Automatic annotation (TrEMBL):
Span of the signal peptide: 1-19
Ranges of residues in domain Peptidase M14: 172-454
Family in the record: Belongs to the peptidase M14 family.
Catalytic site positions: 425
InterPro entries: Peptidase_M14
Taxonomic path: Eukaryota, Fungi, Dikarya, Ascomycota, Pezizomycotina
GO molecular function: metallocarboxypeptidase activity; zinc ion binding
Keywords annotated in UniProt: Carboxypeptidase, Hydrolase, Protease, Signal
Matching Gene3D superfamilies: Zn peptidases
Organism domain of life: Eukaryota
Keyword Cytoplasm on entry: no
GO biological process per UniProt: proteolysis
The protein's name in its UniProt record: Carboxypeptidase
Organism of origin: Fusarium denticulatum
Length: 642
């Protein structure tokens, strides 16, 4: 789709002024400049000029940026940075900007009267790359290479294989062909590694290879909780295609196994491992966060809109892991503070899953045993770390929110089947090739610490997870429908953007360790709903939930939900409009015919069923309009009490 451009305003100004340059990146297609006389913004893309912290006296000019430098009238210098929060944006999709102060100079053309309201993120087919926002010279000094780590992944073993676009943020460092050759080479010389190229493909028919690591005589990818007493660990990266630190860290882990057979044997004696290094090859091909369809692959675990999401989820559920790691990168130079004066300085963020429908034994063991060991591994290499957070940029004091509990994310959805799951994030989005050795070293350090801890305590981890599953199945704990964060205060590592120096800034920290339960309900023995809603049953099964069809008519008392209010979101999200629902529960007698769907709650995956079937949950089938309701309706799912 081609967008037409609309001229906003031009004005001649001959006197010397102090100018701020709000620099848009030419690969975002937000704005374009016709020499020095006409400034244009592409139709459908508006921005709020006042969010940039620049003086708006009719002398503000939009200019391009190249390679981290301002370009105008021969100026080429490292600018001071001031990123921006754009009003109305989902934090996952905020674009990065820079402002460049150039001192006194003559500006011939400027914006006047530019009145704009929040920028709407425009998703285009295969053209969703984020802005290149490399660290300035002083800031870069805070991110030296990690000399203690020799990385054995394709980008470091064969740097000549790195595409030219990696430097400017338009490509990842490792092509699919290079990745496949690397994996096949490892398999050819190691009996304990099996290369798999499954029959299912990405949405654009690219391969999604994975490897299976085991010293068992008969390695088997499919498993279940009763097939073996050996710990099973699943590692994935490349869920978002513009986060190369994730898949490269997993390739580096494989390279380390290959280079150190003694260490590999010590790990594989205790566990079997499945590694899917590149979940989203289409996203990698276009160096964009999204799938080729424009869906976010890490927000597709309620609707399962992509067939690729369904196929990969089936692979993971078949493997039935006890431990999982999901490796990502976070935006490096997103600026915080009222003057856009700070950017996060932590090399790695990590967190175990927090949803209260995960058994407390799994949550507590993750926090008490794994987290200190990951932190210790980072500290040993002088790598800065923190819990995973999101935050609003243009506010003070700063407010950071820890990892949420939403099952729409792949990691949380799997954890709700009673799996010990960890998210890792390295500082990297928007940096191009900058600091890549440190980024991959940070990712590898976190992942290796998790794998090593699981191996060191393999029997204990196995017993904790399997024991928690049985306790969860037998338990009588209430279902947690909604939750909230608990505020506290912390000190955070930042880069001071004007100087490039490391600083520590206090933040209000909305903690999810643990979250506070708000709305809870008694645990039903089962949920029952009409066979007309087959799509709901199919989606439950995709996440490992057992759903049965009753053989004979059901008659009995149930709890029914009467919808008392709805609130529709103002924008489309993942192909639907979210619906915030409230209900009141009433007991009633119902009759359901043979063939109706029955979801028993005495199963390990019931935590996911609680999340999607209780209508007030932020990820329920009512919220996502899989089971659409309006005020006054009776929600078509019923709670069968014991």
């Amino acid at each position: 789709m081609k967008l037409s451009s609309v001229t906003i305003a031009t004005l001649a100004a001959a006197s010397p002024v102090t100018a701020w340059y709000m620099t848009f990146y030419d690969n975002t297609n937000f704005c374009k400049v016709d020499e020095e006389t006409e400034y244009q913004i592409l139709e459908g893309n508006k921005f709020d000029c006042n969010t940039f912290g620049a003086s708006m006296d009719g002398v503000d000019c939009v200019h391009f940026i190249e390679g981290g430098h301002c370009r105008d009238l021969g100026i080429d210098k490292n600018p001071g940075q001031c990123g921006s929060t754009l009003e109305g944006q989902n934090p996952d999709y905020i674009r990065s900007f820079r402002c460049c102060s150039t001192g006194k100079m003559t500006v011939r053309t400027a914006f006047v009267g530019l009145v704009c309201a929040g920028l709407a993120t425009a998703v285009r087919y295969n053209d969703n790359q984020v802005a290149l926002t490399k660290d300035g010279e002083e800031a870069a000094k805070n991110f030296p290479e990690v000399k203690q780590i020799d990385l054995q992944s394709p980008a470091f073993l064969n740097p000549e294989s790195i595409p030219a676009g990696f430097d400017n943020g338009t490509s990842g460092p490792t092509s699919d062909a290079t990745l496949n050759y690397f994996l096949e080479s490892l398999a050819s010389r190691n009996d304990w590694l099996t290369y798999n190229n499954p029959s299912f493909k990405s949405d654009e028919r690219r391969s999604i290879p994975y490897v299976y690591l085991s010293t068992s005589s008969q390695p088997e990818v499919k498993a279940n909780s009763s097939s073996s007493e050996k710990l099973r660990v699943y590692l994935q990266g490349g869920v978002h295609g513009n986060e190369p630190g994730g898949d490269q860290a997993l390739l580096a882990l494989l390279g380390k196994f290959d280079a150190n057979s003694t260490w590999a044997a010590s790990i594989l004696e205790k566990m079997d491992i499945m590694i899917l290094p590149r979940y989203n090859p289409d996203g990698v091909a276009y160096f964009q966060r999204f799938l080729a369809t424009g869906y976010d692959p890490n927000r597709d675990h309620i609707r399962f809109a992509s067939q690729q999401t369904r196929e990969v989820k089936a692979l993971i559920i078949d493997f039935a892991p006890h431990v999982m790691v999901d490796a990502h990168e976070y935006s490096a130079n997103r600026a915080y503070g009222l003057k856009d004066q700070w950017a996060q300085a932590v090399d790695g963020q990590f967190d175990p899953m927090k949803n209260l429908n995960i058994h407390k034994d799994i949550r507590e063991y993750s926090e008490e045993v794994f987290v200190p060991r990951i932190a210790g591994a980072m500290d040993k290499l002088n790598l800065r770390w923190s819990p995973y957070i999101t935050g609003n940029a243009r506010e003070e004091p700063l407010v950071f929110t820890q990892l949420d509990t939403q099952a729409r994310a792949g990691d949380v959805s799997l954890a709700l089947t009673q799996v010990m799951v960890f998210l890792t994030e390295t500082r990297g989005i928007g940096l191009g090739s900058q600091h890549f050795q440190r980024r991959v070293a940070s990712g590898l350090t976190m992942i290796e610490a998790i794998v090593q801890t699981a191996a060191d305590k393999a029997e204990e981890v196995y017993e904790v997870v399997e024991g928690a599953r049985q306790k969860f199945i037998d338990g009588i704990d209430e279902v947690v429908v909604t939750d909230s964060f608990q505020p506290t205060n912390r000190i955070w590592d930042f880069i001071d953007l004007p100087t490039g120096k490391l600083v520590e800034i206090p933040v209000q920290f909305l903690s999810s360790t643990p979250v506070k339960s708000n709305l809870t309900r008694s645990r039903p023995e089962a949920y029952i709903f009409p066979q007309a809603w087959k799509e709901a049953a199919d989606r439950l099964r995709l996440n490992g939930v057992t759903v049965e069809n009753i053989r004979s008519e059901f008659r009995g008392e149930v709890e029914a939900y009467n919808v008392t209010s709805i609130e529709l979101a103002s924008t489309v999200y993942q192909g639907t409009v979210l619906n915030k629902v409230t209900t009141e529960i009433k007991k009633k007698e119902i009759t359901m015919p043979a063939g109706s769907f029955w979801v028993p709650t005495r199963q390990a995956a019931a935590g996911y069923a609680f999340t999607v079937l209780e209508p007030e949950n932020i990820d329920s089938y009512a919220t996502f309009n899989i089971l659409p309701v309006n005020v006054g309706d009776e929600y078509p799912v019923y709670r069968v009490l014991g």
